[in-house]
UniProtKB/TrEMBL annotation:
<keyword id="KW-0159">Chromosome partition</keyword>
<dbReference type="InterPro" id="IPR036390">
    <property type="entry name" value="WH_DNA-bd_sf"/>
</dbReference>
<keyword id="KW-0963">Cytoplasm</keyword>
<keyword id="KW-0132">Cell division</keyword>
<dbReference type="GO" id="GO:0051304">
    <property type="term" value="P:chromosome separation"/>
</dbReference>
<dbReference type="GO" id="GO:0051301">
    <property type="term" value="P:cell division"/>
</dbReference>
<dbReference type="InterPro" id="IPR005234">
    <property type="entry name" value="ScpB_csome_segregation"/>
</dbReference>
<dbReference type="Pfam" id="PF04079">
    <property type="entry name" value="SMC_ScpB"/>
</dbReference>
<dbReference type="InterPro" id="IPR036388">
    <property type="entry name" value="WH-like_DNA-bd_sf"/>
</dbReference>
<keyword id="KW-0131">Cell cycle</keyword>
<protein>
    <submittedName>
        <fullName>Condensin subunit ScpB</fullName>
    </submittedName>
</protein>
Length: 198
C-alpha cells in the first residue's frame, strides 16, 4: 500500500464528501495544480482489495461499494426491473446509435414505439433527452445516462459488446443471424456483379 501524500488525502476527502461523481478538472478546481490523475490511480489501487472501490465512469470518479458485498447492504429484496422486448430493443438502439431521434429508433426497429416505452427508460434513469436535431420540426434526441453505464457495469459506451460478443453469448435471435447472413450475401452478390460488369 502506498503511503498517502497530501494530494491523495485531499482527493480522497473531496470524493468522500462529494454529492456526485467528479471529473479531474472539477477535483483540480478544489485542490489546485497537482497530479490529480496519479493520486486517483494510487487511490484506486489502494482501495481495490477493500469493501469500497474508487471507480471511473465516463471520466467521472466516485467511491462505491464493492460489487461482491452489495448484498450485505440491501435491507429489502430488490425486484429486478423487467423490461418489455420493445423497451429492451429501444434501449439497445439508443446505446449503440446515440444521440438518436424517435423516428430513427422506429426506422431501425421497423415498428412504432409508444411514448410509454421511452418514459419507462427515462424513469429507470437509463435514458435522457439529448437536445434537438437540426431538422424540420427539430425532433428530440435521446442518449444513455451515466446511470445506464453504472447499472450495467460499463466504464464507457466503448465497453458495449460487439456483434461477435453477442453471437458468442447466444443473444442474437436466429432471425437476426439469417438477416445478417442475407445482407452479407447480397453485398457479395453486388461485388460479384460489379466485377462481372467491370
Amino acid at each position: 500500500m502506498t503511503p498517502p501524500d497530501e494530494t491523495m488525502r485531499a482527493v480522497e476527502a473531496l470524493l468522500f464528501a462529494a454529492e456526485a461523481p467528479m471529473t479531474i478538472a472539477e477535483i483540480r478546481g478544489h485542490i489546485g495544480d497537482a497530479d490529480i490523475r496519479a493520486a486517483l490511480d494510487a487511490l484506486a489501487e489502494d482501495y481495490a482489495p477493500r469493501g469500497i472501490h474508487l471507480v471511473r465512469r465516463e471520466n467521472r470518479w466516485h467511491f462505491e461499494t464493492a460489487g461482491d458485498l452489495a448484498h450485505y447492504l440491501r435491507r429489502d429484496r430488490e425486484e429486478p426491473r423487467k423490461l418489455s422486448r420493445a423497451a429492451t430493443e429501444t434501449l439497445a438502439i439508443i446505446a449503440y446509435h446515440e444521440p438518436v431521434t424517435r423516428a430513427e429508433i422506429e426506422s431501425i426497429r421497423g415498428v412504432q414505439i409508444s411514448k410509454g416505452t421511452l418514459d419507462v427508460l427515462m424513469e429507470a434513469g437509463w435514458v435522457r433527452p439529448a437536445g434537438r436535431r437540426e431538422l424540420p420540426g427539430r425532433p428530440l434526441q435521446y442518449a444513455t445516462t451515466p446511470g445506464f453505464l453504472d447499472h450495467f457495469g460499463l466504464a464507457s459506451r466503448r465497453d458495449l459488446p460487439g456483434i461477435d460478443d453477442l453471437r458468442a453469448a447466444g443473444l442474437l435471435d436466429p432471425v437476426d443471424l439469417v438477416m445478417e447472413q442475407a445482407s452479407m450475401g447480397s453485398d457479395d452478390d453486388e461485388v460479384e456483379s460489379c466485377n462481372n460488369n467491370g
